Amino acid sequence: VTKHLTLHTRTTTAGPVVEIAGDLDYDTAGQVRAALPGLGLRPGQQLVLDLGSLSFCDSSGITVLIAARNHALAAGASIALAAVPDRVGRIFRIVGLEQVFPTHPTAEAAEAAWRPAGG
Amino acid sequence: MSKTDDGEDGPCRGDEPADEQAQFSALLEDSAEDLYEHAPCGYLSTQLDGRIAKINATLLDWLGHRREDLVGRKHFSDLLTVGGRLYHETHFAPLLRMQGEVNGIALELKAADGTRLPVLITSTVKTGSDGQPLLIRTTVFDARDRRAYEAELLRARREADRERDRLQTLATTLQETLLPPALVDVPGLDVAAHYHIASTDKVGGDFYDLFPLDAGTWGLFLGDVCGKGAAAAAITSLARYTLRAAAVYDPDPVAVLGNLNTVLNHEYNGADPRFCTVVFGLLTPDRGGFRITLASGGHPPALLMRADGTADFLPTPGGQLIGVLPDAHIATTTVHLAPGDTLLLHTDGLTEAHTNATAGSEDRYGDDALLDFGRALAPTTASRTVSAVRDLLDTFGTGVDDDTAVLAVHAPRTPSGEQQ
User: Fold this and answer.
1) Which residue in chain A is spatially nearest to B327 when comparing CA positions?
2) pLDDT tens for residues B48-64?
3) pLDDT one-digit tens code per residue, B374-383
4) Helix or strand or coil: residue A57?
5) Shortest CA distance to B380 belongs to which of B338, B335, B340?
6) In this structure, how many other beta carbons lie within 10 angstroms of the beta carbon of residue B310?
7) Beta bridge partners of B312
């Protein structure tokens, strides 16, 4: 069982893709928060958070996903989630966030859905 | 006076002429005799019955005794305190007889002036060539510095314990200020609540309240602020007072939660967003029970346990958590709490609890299990529901890793529900 969090960032034409693997909770959420400024998001880009290897996400995890959204919007960019696990998807439905984060089955699908026009 | 050395030749040989000793000293810069007498530890040889046969100057100096007062006259146990003598008789001496040596025993010696000297004692039994025990050799280490060091450690530890207690008291007190001291008495309504604290040093972010509004109507809420600690407690406090004030201004549940959303959204945005999930209810007496309008901002659904033994969640789909979005959508549902019905509000500390923490299992309790719990319990009352939840939390033990709040309301079947 993964008890820590690892981040892996890669750059695509659509913008940065951050893979978040492990437990996203009170103890690890700060890692994601700290990584946001270094992404170098430009206006019109799309930040993709790939949650395919996320094993757990609590309210602190939700908080940092919202912080990522605020960060993207402030940079004039957009945000999308990829490969949202069922458990996390269920939490998102309960707290009504599924309308706020566009979601895609894979990071590639998220990249394909991005339109350079921006907006 | 037994001047018997009983074959004890010691680390040195008895009395040597002073000039010879001086020569020896000059050669080695330290004589065995001088090392024995003025070693940094005490030396003591006793006969098997404990009578002192030989003692070095260091130990005599520590104790303030003269050699002639001890040698052949006193027993080793005479140098001990009363407690030490008892310990010597019951443990030390038997152990020494049994295994031929005893190592590093802490005892207290009595000095001539009555003061006490903490020491560490090591003794060995010297045997003759035939294997028969001849005498007991004992080294005595001054443990005053060590004892002082231990006392200091103990003092520091007690201080740390007191600090921890103070922190826990502070956290508990703060927690209590975030909850109503007692729930108000609503005519015709049976109410019970429970707050389970998961961590004694971090204030959690769950909250609830039940309070009177305009004549004959009542407000209730239960919520969960994200995060823990002082920052979460500040939001909890803000949420609680905003909800109460907003309900007085306009008791419509959607308006109440909308108000809280605006306040939190203005206050906290950007890199450190703060949000909560809340369910707010407006209670109005209706047909022997109550009409309850529930508004939910992203909160887990309430559980209705009916008088007929059925139970269901009251979903509020589409309700969004409070404080994140400038115009959060708030979903409502209305339910009639008929006589015999019980409504349970909870925070997700309950459903997120690990069911088998000791086995290190990742299994969590979950919504389905909570629904089954409600079905097994119905029909029930508020106090029976809360007590069953407490029992359930007890079975999870350390598996409850987040604070958990529950609030249950029940319309009794008795005619007391008829008053107006």
Assistant:
1) A100
2) 999 999 999 999 999 99
3) 999 999 999 9
4) strand
5) B340
6) 13
7) B304
> Whole-angstrom distance between the N-terminal and C-terminal Cα of chain B?
104
* Out of A1, A60, A100, closest to residue B226 by CB: A60
Chain B residues lying within 8 Å of A36, measured CB to CB: 271
pLDDT tens digits, one per residue of B383-402 = 999 999 999 999 988 888 88
- Helix or strand holding residue A22 (H, E): strand A15-24
Q: What CA–CA distance (Å, rounded) separates B162 from B133?
A: 52
CB A15 within 8 A of CB A45: yes
- CB contacts, 8 Å: B269 with chain A: 70
Dist CA B388 CA B377 (whole Å): 8
Structure tokens at B43: 């030396």
Q: Quick one: CA torsion of B257, B210, B294, B326, rounded to 10 degrees?
A: 10
Q: Which positions 53-82 of A are in contact with B (Cβ < 8 Å)?
A: 58-60, 62-63, 66-67, 70-71, 74
Rounded to two decimals, the pTM is 0.67
| A63–B275 CB contact, under 8 Å | yes
One-letter amino acid identity for B216? G
Q: Residue B318: which of A58, A59, A96 has the nearest Cβ? A: A96
Tokens of B29: 């810069």
The helices-and-strands tally (H runs, E runs) of chain A is: 4, 6
A35 part of contact set with chain B, CB < 8 Å: no
Interchain contact, B324 vs A59, CB within 8 Å: no
Q: Inter-axis angle of helices B366-377 and B382-396, to 10 degrees?
A: 140
User: Does the beta-carbon distance from A26 to B275 stay under 8 Å?
Assistant: no
- ipTM score assigned to the predicted complex: 0.78
pLDDT in tens, B120-162: 999 999 998 888 999 999 999 999 888 888 888 999 999 999 9
